[in-house]
Write a structure and sequence with these properties.
Elements: H1 5-10, E1 16-27, E2 37-49, E3 54-58, H2 65-72, E4 80-87, E5 90-93, H3 102-108, E6 109-112, H4 126-136, H5 142-155, H6 162-165, H7 174-186, E7 192-196, H8 204-221, E8 224-229, H9 232-238, E9 241-246, E10 249-255, H10 256-261, H11 266-274, H12 314-318, E11 325-326, E12 332-333
Parallel strand pairs: 3-8, 3-9, 6-7, 7-8
Antiparallel strand pairs: 1-2, 1-4, 4-5, 9-10, 10-12, 11-12
Helix pairs in contact: 4-5, 4-7, 5-7, 7-8
Bound molecules: adenosine-5'-diphosphate and magnesium ion.
Adenosine-5'-diphosphate is lined by residues 25, 39, 41, 59, 61-67, 295.
């Protein structure tokens, strides 16, 4: 039976749709020999992001978060799979984008990096850094660009803008540099921004003000974020939905409050028990998982979490990595033992 019309109309077309995305890194002990070993950094992941929505990508170091972000921003090529971006009704396939479409792509998709000390060119002034995309995209005349850059500095809280325009990164604090990076990302009005742990290198005392700034600007600029963090409490603060990643796989994805109130995957439960969320509404159990995260080097086809799982059964040991079970309300879990 077909769906009733109202349902179809209510569904928004996703801004970003990731399908069967993979990134394998070849590793070879001998440079003269072909690589037969592969790190499965990102291994067949699927998710969507709606216009204006913020999706958190959460997991321990090494699970493939940055690789995912870098494929979505085209800094790393995908091994296989699709990344579709809706550009005003037209779909751009990011994974197979033509060179001639790169400029248009850069106008829509921007990235904010973890390290504001590394991501800004030390020899460029704040003005040059923020205006660069306007120049590359050939937007406006010089005077309009100057006005636009000043407006952005104002909106990211670097005021008065005149006192920042001609400074160099070494004259700025970490927080100020990250504000410059945010202004640089938003100056051309992108629709999608990947933010890779944008506050984790900053002083604890200023993290919250940068997070608040990013929330305010997401609203004002109507951008969607893929917000990468290893910290569930940060994802809760920043994101509408959360995807939990483990060794290259997304193991659970759900709206933020649903995920925190009703975590179903043993790994999500373990993460939650390790990272206290300051809210008594969420009852927390102690979940111990064995061992530490390793590398997904030539992983066997079984569940990627099996070695650390407290509930693994014979079925888990003899079956492929589980697909998603749909629990309703956008809650998907990849586990045989719910
Ligand atoms: P995260 O951002 O979650 O910490 P990454 O995406 O940086 O994880 O890394 C995922 C896995 O891919 C790790 O095992 C990492 O060592 C490996 N990896 C990342 N970049 C490369 C690379 N350029 N060459 C080989 N392996 C890499
Ligand atoms: Mg990373």
């Amino acid at each position: 039976m077909t769906e009733p019309m109202t349902d179809i109309a209510a569904k928004t077309t996703p801004l970003v749709k990731v399908e069967n995305l993979r990134k394998l890194y070849p590793v070879s002990k001998n440079i003269f020999r072909e690589a037969h070993d592969f790190v499965h950094a990102v291994d067949d992941i699927n998710f969507e992001i709606a216009p204006g929505e913020s999706l958190g990508l959460v997991g321990e170091s090494g699970c493939g978060k940055s690789t995912t972000g870098r494929m979505l921003t085209k800094l790393t090529d995908a091994t296989s799979g699709q990344i579709l971006l809706d550009d005003k009704g037209e779909l751009i396939d990011i994974a197979h984008i033509q060179r001639s479409d790169m400029r248009r792509f850069r106008r829509r998709v921007q990235m904010i990096f973890q390290d504001p000390f590394e991501s800004l060119n030390p020899r460029r002034t704040v003005y040059d850094t923020v205006a660069e995309s306007l120049t590359v995209q050939r937007i406006g005349r010089v005077q309009e660009r100057e006005e636009r850059v000043a407006e952005l500095l104002h909106r990211v809280g670097l005021t008065p803008p005149e006192s920042f325009l001609f400074r160099y990164p070494h004259e700025l604090s970490g927080g100020q540099r990250q504000r410059v990076a945010i202004a640089r990302a938003l100056v051309i009005d992108p629709t999608f921004v990947v933010a890779d742990e944008p506050t984790s290198m900053l002083d604890v005392s200023i993290r919250i003000s940068i997070m608040d700034l990013m929330l305010k600007l997401a609203d004002e600029f109507n951008v969607s974020y893929l917000y990468i963090t290893h910290d569930l409490a940060v994802a809760r603060y920043m994101c509408d939905r959360i995807a939990v990643m483990y060794l290259g796989k997304i193991v659970e994805i759900a709206p933020t409050e649903e995920l925190l109130a009703n975590p179903r995957h043993p790994y999500t439960r373990a993460l939650l028990s390790a990272v206290p969320v300051p809210d008594p509404a969420y009852k927390r159990e102690r979940v111990d998982i064995k061992g530490g995260i390793s590398k997904a080097l030539n992983p066997p086809p079984v569940c990627r979490f099996i070695e650390r799982c407290p509930r693994a059964t014979d079925q888990c040991r003899t079956s492929d990595h589980p697909g998603f079970d749909d629990l309703g309300n956008g809650h998907l879990v990849a586990c045989y033992n719910l």
